[in-house]
Amino acid sequence: MAFELPALPYQHNALAARGMCQQTLELHHDKHHQAYVTALNGFVEKNPDLQGKSLDEIVSHSHGKPDMAPVFNNAGQHWNHILFWQALSPGGGAMPGSLESKINEDFGSVDAFKEQFKTAATTQFGSGWAWLVLASDGKLKVTKTPNGSNPLAEGIGRALLGLDVWEHSYYLDFQNKRPDYVTNFLDRLANYEFADAQLKAA
Ligand code: MN3
After folding, report:
1. So where are the chain's domains?
2. What value, to the nearest 5°, has the Cα angle with vertex 163 and ends 159 and 168?
């Protein structure tokens, strides 16, 4: 069974009023994400070891193996983008009370959480991701990973939200101003309802 590009959970123009234009989503989802899926399927087709494995299994199996780096990069990016589309919302920025309480408990305040997330996202040198994760000690944490890596591969908890900080994710909307993209995400695009549901399911 080949991996497939999931449809966006909203229209391509649905986030335009909130700082992510239609062209960004057309290129990022339809071209970049599709390219990761196509490349991953090519690797699976040629490698019997990968056949029949789930995406999570391929990510874990290929992580840290130099000869499997191309497989890991594309599987990781497929995994990351599946989460990313769900982490954005046309009604983003509104935080459910239950998530807000947990964030207050673990970070001190919502502002402190946003500061930590902004620091992680802006200090990730080059391409990568910033994450809100539920760590194995039951606490929420902010972390970052390079390139196509993610919390699953690195065993740093269950991802509740992920923000793509590759330039392709923000250059049309914010040019070189990654901090403005991150702030806009936290205040106007982040799907905290999704994060809350992930937290409740954990
Ligand atoms: Mn991307």
Report:
1. 21-202
2. 140
State the distance from the centre of ligand 1 to the C-alpha of 105, rounded, in angstroms. 31
Q: How far apart are CA 109 and CA 89, in angstroms?
A: 22
Kindly list the protein residues that place their beta carbon closer than 5 angstroms to ligand 1, a single-atom ion.
164, 166
Q: Give the pLDDT confidence score for residue 21 in this predicted structure.
A: 98
Residues 5-39: tens digit of each pLDDT: 999 999 999 999 999 999 999 999 999 999 999 99
Report the candidate in 135, 24, 37 with the shortest Cα–Cα distance to residue 80: 37
pLDDT value of residue 155: 95
**What's the whole-model pTM score?**
0.97
Ligand 1 centre to CA of 28 (Å) is 6
Q: What is the architecture of the domain spanning 21-202?
A: 3-Layer(bab) Sandwich (3.55)
